[in-house]
Amino acid sequence: MASTASAIEKLKGTWDYVDGENFDEYLKEMGISWVVRQAAKAVKAEKMIISVNDNGRWTLKSESTLKNTTYEFTSGIEFNETRADGAEVKSIITFDNNNGRWIHEAIDKQGKKVHIERYVDDKDQQQVELSCGNVKAHRRYKRVG
């Protein structure tokens, strides 16, 4: 198995959304309004760009016809994040040393917790596993270029 650093480094790059499962139920569990969930369903093209600078600060940019969002973080350090729906959350992202996963924990002002894991599978596709409460969702992205 590759080292954790190289497994995490595989997440760098540009990714196009391929498909997903149960995302609307996940958003509903997060407390996202029906109107915003319908708008999210209408998005036909979503691009994600993940990069890291020389100081170990990571950036994730999500671009779509609905909204563009960006957040920056250093692994293991809590930061303030503004979600695509405009909600402010406290987030922390860590890297799992055993399996090369990027683990994102967030909590909103109402105490609702979200757990997201990202990793690159053996087909070089980014897999994103999301959970909120008892609801689980999955999204898949393909590398561009």
Classification by helices and strands: alpha+beta
Please count the helical segments: 3
Overall, the morphology is globular
How many distinct domains? Answer: 1
Beta-strand share of residues: over 45%
C-alpha termini separation: 25 Å
Widest beta sheet: strand line-up: 4-3-2-1-10-9-8-7-6-5
Structure description:
By secondary structure, the chain is of the alpha+beta class. The chain has a single domain, classed as Lipocalin (Beta Barrel). It has helices at residues 4-9, 23-30, 34-42; strands spanning 13-21, 46-52, 57-64, 69-74, 79-82, 88-95, 102-108, 113-120, 125-132, 135-143. The longest helix has 9 residues, at 34-42. The mean pLDDT is 92. It has 3 helices and 10 strands.
Task: Summarize it.
This protein is of the alpha+beta class. Helices cover 16% and strands 51% of the residues.
List the defining traits of the structure above.
145 residues, 16% helix, globular, 51% strand, 10 strands, single chain, Lipocalin, Calycin, alpha+beta, Lipocln_cytosolic_FA-bd_dom
Topology:
Layout lengths: L3 H6 L3 E9 L1 H8 L3 H9 L3 E7 L4 E8 L4 E6 L4 E4 L5 E8 L6 E7 L4 E8 L4 E8 L2 E9 L2
